[in-house]
Amino acid sequence: MSRPIIVMPDAVAVTIGYLRPALAAVGEPVPVVSRIPLPRPARFVRVRRVGGLQQTPVSDRPRLDIHAWADTEAGAADLVALVRGLLGAMPGVRGGVPVYRVTEVGGPQWLPDSESSSPRYALAVEIHMRGRVL
Length: 134
Hints:
The protein is α+β, with helices and mostly antiparallel strands. The protein has one domain (6-133): STM4215-like (2-Layer Sandwich), CATH 3.30.2000. It has helices at residues 11-25, 73-88, and strands at 6-7, 32-33, 44-56, 59-69, 92-94, 97-110, 120-130, 132-133. The strands form 2 sheets. It has a 6-stranded mixed beta sheet with strand order 2-3-4-7-6-5. The protein has a two-stranded antiparallel sheet with strand order 1-8. β5 (92-94) and β6 form a beta hairpin.
């Protein structure tokens, strides 16, 4: 008997799909993207997968870097703090994908953008989510 094929979800797409409406719902309708947009908005959030491991035969635990840009250092700190709180509420079914838990692996840190000198804060999380059987 052959083993089933398990396909893991695109963690960046699932996270962006969750954060965009969640931020808008709390009065912060900022762009949430996987690449820095051109032209660059004053305020936005970028989600990028930087690693992670398969947690079980049917689940993934990707590590994501979350960066928040704003006009001021305080604005960037507030935006990343809001994203941090929203990620804590992410477990559940998101875009059809079961999300079991979100674990912070790197708390918010000041990380000014070296290319634009724009204020930026960063946060790192691991998100345990279920794959699907083909």
